[in-house]
Design a protein that fits this description.
With about 280 residues, the chain is mostly helical. It has helices spanning about 1-25, 30-50, 55-75, 85-95, 100-135, 135-150, 150-165, 170-200, 235-245, 255-270, 275, and strands at about 200-205, 215, 220, 225, 245-250. Strands 1-5-2 form a three-stranded antiparallel β-sheet. The chain has a two-stranded antiparallel sheet with strand order 3-4. α5 packs across α6 (about 135-150).
Length: about 280
């Protein structure tokens, strides 16, 4: 019991700090994520050494680290996570093994990931709606622009959707697919419009930080600094500062609040009767 509570409190404090940092600076420092890994595994080791028979509590933390290391890298290289988010996911792997039984921990991992996906979708929708309202003039202009650019895509979607709706008279599944196909082009245009009108900002070169995403390639003399998913490194930032006053960067959505909400929900489910009613395996 003490081990679970301590790990929960430790991770909660770290995630709160990460959330504050992400909201303010749109980044999560490496030292924050790495220190959570060190403290969590260190606590597990000494807890197992002095308060338990055997080292299963420590080993389960290592297993969680390994599983979430793979998951974090898949999400990062799949371009669904920024580097800081992926490292925070890995760090949480050392915490979430609340049990000494692997099968129980696997259920915890699956529940956390499901909660994370659900909270993430809802959070992203609400955040983009907030941005579109906050930058309503720019958003409306960009939405019209994106609609004009993607008219063929929209009309193709409508045509395919009508076909599926017609087949929906024979099966409800086709009708549902038709509705989804009809919505998808508009959803794509909406997300693209939010991205172009609300997430691209011009900042002074001396304000750049490691990992910032360039909006487009920057040419400096004979060298071209490419806009990549990995973001800017120290050498590229130094070069830009020497030759440019301002650059366009693409800001991401601060995603650490999703970690915070999902983690609190997970622990609530874990310590309540709801946990006993959930069965993924």
């Amino acid at each position: 019991m003490f081990g679970e509570i301590f790990l929960f409190a430790l991770a909660l404090i770290w995630i709160v700090f990460a959330t504050i940092q992400d909201i303010k600076k749109r980044e999560v420092a490496n030292w924050l994520n790495f220190s959570l890994i060190i403290f969590a595994l260190g606590f597990r080791f000494f807890y197992s050494l002095f308060l338990e028979k055997g080292f299963s509590f420590f080993y389960q933390g290592l297993i969680g680290f390994g599983i979430f290391f793979i998951l974090g890298n898949v999400l990062y290289y799949g371009k669904m996570f920024a580097g800081g988010d992926a490292k925070l996911m890995v760090a949480l792997g050392t915490v979430l093994s609340f049990s000494n039984i692997f099968e129980t921990n696997l259920r915890i991992f699956l529940l956390f990931f499901v909660l994370f996906l659900l909270v993430g979708v809802l959070y992203s929708i609400l955040f983009t709606v907030y941005l579109s309202i906050k930058h309503s003039r720019k958003f409306k202009k960009e939405f019209i622009n994106q609609f004009r650019k993607n008219k063929k895509f929209v009309f193709l979607g409508i045509f395919i959707a009508i076909i599926f709706v017609i087949f929906g008279f024979f099966s409800n599944l086709f009708f549902l697919l038709g509705i989804l196909i009809f919505i998808f082009p508009y959803l794509y245009i909406y997300v693209k419009a939010v991205d172009e009108s609300c997430m691209v900002v011009k900042i002074k070169a001396d304000k750049l930080t490691e990992g910032d995403w360039l909006y487009k390639n920057v040419k400096i003399g004979n060298k071209t600094i490419k806009a990549s998913w990995e973001g800017l490194n120290k050498n590229e930032i130094s070069l830009i500062k020497k030759k440019k006053d301002e650059v366009l960067i693409r800001k991401g959505i601060p995603f650490t609040p999703v970690f915070l909400i999902s983690f609190i929900l997970l622990f609530y489910f874990w310590k309540s009767n709801i946990w006993n009613k959930i069965n993924f395996m």
